[in-house]
Amino acid sequence: MSPRPELTFACELDAARLAALFADASVVEDLLALGARVALMVSDFSDERAEVVRRLNGAGVPVVGIPLLPLAQGYYFTADNAAQAAGRYQQWRAWTRGHRLAWAGVGLDVEPDARIYLQIMDNPWGLAPMLVPRLFDRARPERSRAAYRELVDRIRADGWTVENYQFPLIADERRAGSTLLQRLALVDVQTDREVWMIYSSFMRALGPGLIWSYGPEASAIGVGTTGGGPDIPGSPQMPSLTWEEFARDLRLARHWCDQILIHSLEGCVWQGFLGRLRSFDWTDTATSAERAWVARGLRTCLRATLRASAHPWAMLSAATAFCCLIRLGVGSSRSSTLDRSPSNHTGNKQDQRWAGRLRGRGVGPDRFPAPGSRVRRCRCDRHRPGPGREKQSLSGKSGCAFQLTYSWPLDPSAIVSFFSPVVAGPTSTAPVLALNCEPWHGHMITCADGS
Predict the structure, then answer these.
(1) CB-based burial of residue 301 (10 Å sphere; 0-12 exposed, 13-18 middle, 19+ buried)?
(2) How do residues 382-423 score in pLDDT, each as one tens digit?
(3) Is 316 domain-assigned?
């Protein structure tokens, strides 16, 4: 059996339900048997909550404190409430010292505003007026990073290590060098330990693939949820995993790292998962997760979008150059196809037949049409014999003559027309005298005058 990873259970309950949860002594016993920690969300500074922390301290269960804000200020720490977050930490520290509580560290749950989640539940279309103005605030990411960097330094100066809980999308944004997601909702804060929340209960078909895709880059992975939800009045309960799904996600996360956060402790207790983990088989899974290729494809598309947002002019130039290369390649391919087409070989046979006919009429080889040119017989009424009209033929005799023209867009090609004029025609071939020519062939050159 593989060694058990370091487990941390997130707990997000109000003071009354928290006290009821730990009233069961078996919960503390299971935590001690697993060697697990508790990441406790602190949404209020009540005496009941302080009593639960003291009980865990006395039992030897490590506890990480996660200060939270009132719902009116966003509940979670966000990019917009960094000043309130710093003030909330000061209140948490004063409450800690007043009750003489011991903490294994401080957690920063920096997420989008909880009101965004409630808006998604109520009406997703209402997100547009909330998020669109943020796209144009390019100073927002650096402003929030600087504020939380200062908060992290203050916590470390007070003697605690700091960890944060982050959506894994931040990894793609860092790689792309973009700030698009940070302008919308995320904050790129650097701490001692970063936990990526990859809760497959929200995307059951894709969740395991996301764990497998992000796992190689993660130092700690959060799985879940097994039940429960934020301490927000009226907040709906989040969808929870079954035991089979939960066990699968644990093994997938264990394959990549040895630090796993489980959301949530109360869900594991309510579903009876906590006791079963004491005898859980942590045998490593050696096979790729289902739909891992879909997760990789989505991440590739996301990084391309983020890269385009970070370098719009460079991406536009690259797209323009690519289109030009495609256009040139298509044109070259078309020319090669025309050169190799059977019609050219057929034209060579026609040239030979017309050369025989010209030779029979006394026309020398130096007056033959150019190889590859098309030869046609003129059927125009203007070129039929008439009284008082005569034209010098290519052979120097009156009668049916051959007229050579050039055509476009292929290489210049000669056209031979048969007519029997009585009177010699004009030597000029200007368009005002559209004699002996076909309107789509353009300028006409006759072999008789050598023009």
Answers:
(1) exposed
(2) 545 555 444 444 444 444 444 444 444 444 444 444 444 444
(3) no
